[in-house]
Amino acid sequence: MAPAELTGTGAGDAVGSAPAAGMRVAVDAVAAGAGLLPGAGPLRHTTVNLVAALADLAPRSIWHVFCPAFAVLHELADHPNVRLHPVRAARSRPLRVVYQHTGYPLALRRVRPDVTLHTVNVAPPFGPRPRVVMLRSLQCFTQPRQFGWLRRRYLQFAVRRSLRGADRVVAGSQAAANDAVRLLSLDPDRLRVVPHGLAPHIASKLEEPPPARRTQRPYLLAVSTLYGHKNYPRLLQAFAALHRRQAIPHELRIAGADADLTAADLRRMAVELGISDAVSLLGPVPHDRIASHYQQADALVYVSLAETFGHPPLEAMACGCPVIASNASSLPEVTGRAAELVDPTDVQSVASAIERVVTRPQRRAELVAGGRQRARDFTWPRAAERLLPVLQEVARSPASTRS
């Protein structure tokens, strides 16, 4: 049985079904931790833009946003119905987990929420009910070797308990929802699919003509935190194969912060493959500066092995950058027919797709036009229109079925 998906809910319908006095919603962003820091990945801008869209859509509701004091979501401060609650959650993951199980549930309870929205996979076991949990990642189940033993065991326990105990689970893609049913035996009736949107500063590029090239050497771009499942070793191997036979003149630029792989690891691989002079490691790039990198690239290459959504391909399409992406997990669902899809486990498949896209102007033009059209389908107001009725439904039914 497929997870239930919300369709055809407009802004007027969502607001019209809200209680006259609105709701008190506690938004839990603490679990994101350092993921809310600039350049650390999509968690900050997706959380900010989703809450902003929800606050605009339901102005009579009060949105109490809990975030770490070291990464306050100050972008939300101008919304009159948003209340920011910075809490003293430590940057250290183990200390933050302890806080999430001790003082944090009390902080959430103090605002007496009608419903709590947990934005990153887990909910503290003693926090307020009812609750909605957003599924952001299942890598602790699908790519367990990326995690140390203790962290893997904790995440598998906490994510399974949180998702099974939620009144509703919200996934960014149907593929992620299906994985949750398959891996965790979740009840499909509790799942809702709410695709993400484009940040406003990225969406604005849809209306701009592509800028003139400002780089002397053409380049391919890869964007993501350096997690193992992002598949960088195979990308480097594919690029090296093209480089050795001089099939393309491009440089490969990689933007992303260290994780279970590091920039030093990738530099070492590049040296071993003989491409160190053609690979640039940019480190973490703040999200408000990433658009120009997309706009100047000849292609984004995103060969991740597992995604619950996949923001870089969507952003690249909005910026007029052709996309080469994996045919795995959520990526075909996000990109539709507007990307060159490859088998991410096949180095030759990746290399051939890169060569095809950068050497065939007609194919590039097709991808640019299709990508821009596809990107228009993903907006945060549309995501809010889908998510708000879920929160209202749960708030009205505090006795929802729970595990």
Short description:
Helices cover 40% and strands 15% of the residues. With 403 residues, the chain is an alpha/beta fold. Helix 7 links the parallel strand 6 (168-171) and strand 7 (191-193).
Specify the helix fraction band. Answer: 40-55%
- Helix and strand succession? HEHEEHHEEHHEHEHEHEHEHEHEHEHHH
- Strand portion: 5-15%
Mean pLDDT: 90
Strand order across the largest sheet: 3-2-1-4-5-6-7
| Main sheet attributes: strand count, strand direction, barrel closure | 7 strands, parallel
Overall geometric form: globular
The count of helical stretches stands at 16
Uncertain segments: 1-20
Number of DSSP E strands: 13
Q: For the record, give the distance between the C-alpha atoms at the N and C termini, rounded to a whole number.
A: 19 Å
- SS content category: alpha/beta
Rg of Cα set: 21 Å
Structural topology:
Blueprint: H1 11-16, E1 24-28, H2 43-57, E2 62-68, E3 82-87, H3 93-100, H4 103-110, E4 115-118, E5 131-135, H5 139-142, H6 149-165, E6 168-171, H7 174-184, E7 191-193, H8 200-203, E8 219-223, H9 232-244, E9 251-255, H10 263-273, E10 279-283, H11 290-296, E11 299-302, H12 311-318, E12 323-326, H13 331-335, E13 340-342, H14 347-359, H15 361-375, H16 380-396
Parallel strand pairs: 1-2, 1-4, 2-3, 4-5, 5-6, 6-7, 8-9, 8-11, 9-10, 11-12, 12-13
Helix pairs in contact: 2-16, 9-10, 9-14, 12-15
